Amino acid sequence: xxxxxxxxxxxxxxxxxxxxxxxxxxxxxxxxxxxxxxxxxxxxxxxxxxxxxxxxxxxxxxxxxxxxxxxxxxxxxxxxxxxxxxxxxxxxxxxxxxxxxxxxxxxxxxxxxxxxxxxxxxxxxxxxxxxxxxxxxxxxxxxxxxxxxxxxxxxxxxxxxxxxxxxxxxxxxxxxxxxxxxxxxxxxxxxxxxxxxxxxxxxxxxxxxxxxxxxxxxxxxxxxxxxxxxxxxxxxxxxxxxxxxxxxxxxxxxxxxxxxxxxxxxxxxxxxxxxxxxxxxxxxxxxxxxxxxxxxxxxxxxxxxxxxxxxxxxxxxxxxxxxxxxxxxxxxxxxxxxxxxxxxxxxxxxxxxxxxxxxxxxxxxxxxxxxxxxxxxxxxxxxxxxxxxxxxxxxxxxxxxxxxxxxxxxxxxxxxxxxxxxxxxxxxxxxxxxxxxxxxxxxxxxxxxxxxxxxxxxxxxxxxxxxxxxxxxxxxxxxxxxxxxxxxxxxxxxxxxxxxxxxxxxxxxxxxxxxxxxxxxxxxxxx
Amino acid sequence: xxxxxxxxxxxxxxxxxxxxxxxxxxxxxxxxxxxxxxxxxxxxxxxxxxxxxxxxxxxxxxxxxxxxxxxxxxxxxxxxxxxxxxxxxxxxxxxxxxxxxxxxxxxxxxxxxxxxxxxxxxxxxxxxxxxxxxxxxxxxxxxxxxxxxxxxxxxxxxxxxxxxxxxxxxx
Lengths: 527, 171
Prior knowledge:
Helix content of chain B: 25-40%
Number of strands of chain A: 18
Distance between the termini of chain A: 55 Å
Strand order of the largest sheet of chain B: 2-3-4-6-5
Helix content of chain A: 10-25%
Largest sheet of chain B: 5 strands, antiparallel
Mean pLDDT of chain B: 80
Number of strands of chain B: 6
Distance between the termini of chain B: 70 Å
Largest interface: A-B, 92 and 86 residues
Structural class of chain A: alpha+beta
Shape of chain A: globular
Low-confidence stretches of chain B: 1-19, 30-44
Strand content of chain B: 15-25%
Structural class of chain B: alpha+beta
Oligomer: heterodimer
Shape of chain B: globular
Low-confidence stretches of chain A: 1-25, 246-258
Order of helices and strands of chain B: HEHHHEEEHEEH
Order of helices and strands of chain A: HEEEEEEEEEEHEEHEEEHHHHHEEEH
Radius of gyration of chain A: 24 Å
Strand content of chain A: 15-25%
Radius of gyration of chain B: 27 Å
Largest sheet of chain A: 8 strands, antiparallel
């Protein structure tokens, strides 16, 4: 056929490239290598001004949440979802816009058997026998006597490049040690009668080493929590592309009733990860400890996980040493903005992206300036008259994903992918939050040369939301879908820029708690 | 083997503690990427993998229609309406058998779909008017025989749109 042009060719190549990587969420199992290492699979990263008001005012704090190890089910026992004690989980903050971390929070986990390594034992026929389960009874407190396997972590802070200096460990203000306990996963109500009450005991106060905070309520401290939470992400892009499965019947129409409506209601009951769990690494830090200074209120954040370069399996494995690891840290997971490594980065570079640092993101710029997703949407929906944006390179996507939006959260001219938050923008109370976030604050641009016009007086405008940071209740998929199809471009270059595109999986602030760590307890029912 | 030597060297000083600062990791020798296994994630894009096949299948089973895609685009070219891009799009989205999308330099979209019958084209138009009215609110659709044309993003180019429709009607 003579008509196949470069546009279609690239779209087909993109579609073909998706074949072996069929998972989809913010970043769940997005790259080939990470599927073999689910414990270090970063899935979502949130960064927002704290909006908790009771029992104390937390407006001087910023909350950072990195989620790992996706798709947890209650039948994941008996070992459930411990984090990898041989990995290093990190949250990075760049506060001067060069794409290099200025502050890193390091989570270093440890697994130990109770009773100083012996584990819980039961007398069986005159012998003490180690039990096969992680718990020997119901749990109510940290380090409960019934807990056979104890998971703990340290929280370190590194200033400057993450490997240039040693971490200073934060002190757990509840016991003045440097150890923090992680709650047991929600195995069911017989093990943990009230998971909200139980898990709340694992929220610890700490002070950021080397920082004297300002702008926080007297007597308050930073907080940390690591544990299982209800999956907060909602996505259904697979259903959006379900038209590919359509068949023309004898009558000419055969629309599957199960298909999501691309321009239908925001919530079409399509969030199929709503019953899953995830492990959250959450910290709440004085904002003044994150920014460079009061004159530079914008910060960029992302999370990574790293593993030792070498691993040798132990042929005589023990609980503590099933393998031996050594060598320098190698980064295997990276997550900032949503969906970047899922539907922006080409599959040949997905593992490379996971191992990369923001300062080197120029190597991935073509995936942003010349994205394949809009072309795929046009190939699938073009018969209806839906057109992809026609302008390249996509400077609007560079602003949204690599550079920050001018006058909102742009830090510098350096291009790098991260969540950017202007901490000078006050938090929006949860009841007033718009799931479409700061994307609602722009008028249609007159032309692309001038870009979208910021209009803070626009109805529904919520400048404290995505892409100015990311809150749990921001419907980032709907926002990203609209931005990809040209929401920030003029009508002439983006004909469907104003279409109310949705994936049918809605999320709002009402789906979350209004207090740290915001994500709800996992509601995983016992079988 | 190179990786094995590197690993042995590294493990000679192996430690479970996590000291900084660190040397840069040594690049491993290239190895074959293992085949993907396991369950897909929360939802999947597997249908997209079938997109090339779907398009090829639709291209191979075009119905016999009076006004083909090529006939219309050639007629428009004769009238001075040129296309900046032109390519096949998924016909099943329009409940059609075969479709192409042309876009003019002014970003006017001209989607042309071929149906098995005139009745099927009418049903297709009804479905699109209903299901995709929010996606392409300014779409104007017209049928000639078993061919349906959709003109989009032409609100600022009414004269061109009318010329396209007039040309289509006369074929």
